[in-house]
Amino acid sequence: MTSNHTSESTVHPYTREMAMIHQVFRRESRLLAELVQDVRPADTARARVLAEHWRQYAVGLHAHHTGEDEMLWPVLLPHLDLDAEQVLAMEAQHRELDEGITEVRGLMDRWQDQALPADRDELAEALRRHHRQLCAHLDEEERQVMPLVALHVNEGQWQAVGERGLAETPKNRLMIALGAILEDSSPQERQEFMARLPLPARVLWRLLGQRQYRRETDRVRGGRRA
């Protein structure tokens, strides 16, 4: 599964929800490479905006993978035999992605100080490598592992993973995180996702969250469409 529009009735809710979250990382990793490449030489103000967005992205991706490694895979593995190799491969790929993130972090820190063209180009290429590696990992996880999650993980265990992710999201970023999940989702996916949220969260999204997310995307993307 590589598309986020997976709202057919035959798709398990866990698989659908995970695909919606994965789509955030696919989109933002692609956009980061494109946005960095477009920055004019010496535009350090723009470089700082994108560097901060990268840091938020990297924190979110790390929290997502750590949640899987510490809360989802340990629940799943006791139910598996030969399929356990597929789950262990996910853990190994998380470690490999961490190495790429460390490389990007160093290049990002260097580039934002002066926004030199050579540093920009090296950083953009590293971001493109990260995007390709990440998409390959997410595709494999959705294709090979999420069907096993749907079979063996119960609702309470799945909710615990989500609650951990929620707890690790700063309160002032909650509406931005929600907007990122909803942005590329189908109308049915949005309706189902919102229905699972507490009423105060739904009201806050309508009153403030949508505007907060638009301001954030305008600031980061500078008019570029996703």
Distance between the termini: 20 Å
SSE string, helices as H and strands as E: HHHHHHHH
User: Total number of helical segments?
Assistant: 8
In terms of quaternary structure, what is this? single chain
| Mean pLDDT across all amino acids | 92
**Share of helical residues:** over 70%
Radius of gyration: 18 Å
How many strand units? 0
Q: Which band does the percent of strand residues land in?
A: under 5%
Note the main sheet.
none
Structural class designation: mainly alpha
Which regions have little confidence, pLDDT < 50, spanning 5+ residues? 1-9
Q: Which outline best applies?
A: globular
Characterize the structure shown:
By secondary structure, the chain is mainly alpha-helical. The protein is built from 8 helices and no strands. Helix 1 packs antiparallel against helix 2. It is globular, with a radius of gyration of 18 Å. It starts with 12 loop residues before the first helix and ends in a 5-residue tail after the last helix.
Please give the structural blueprint:
Blueprint (H helix, E strand, L loop, with lengths): L12 H25 L6 H33 L7 H31 L2 H36 L2 H13 L6 H9 L4 H9 L3 H23 L5
Helix pairs in contact: 1-2, 1-4, 2-3, 2-5, 3-4, 6-8
Concise description?
With 226 residues, the protein is mainly alpha-helical. It is built from eight helices and no strands.
Offer a few descriptive terms.
0% strand; disordered N terminus; 226 residues
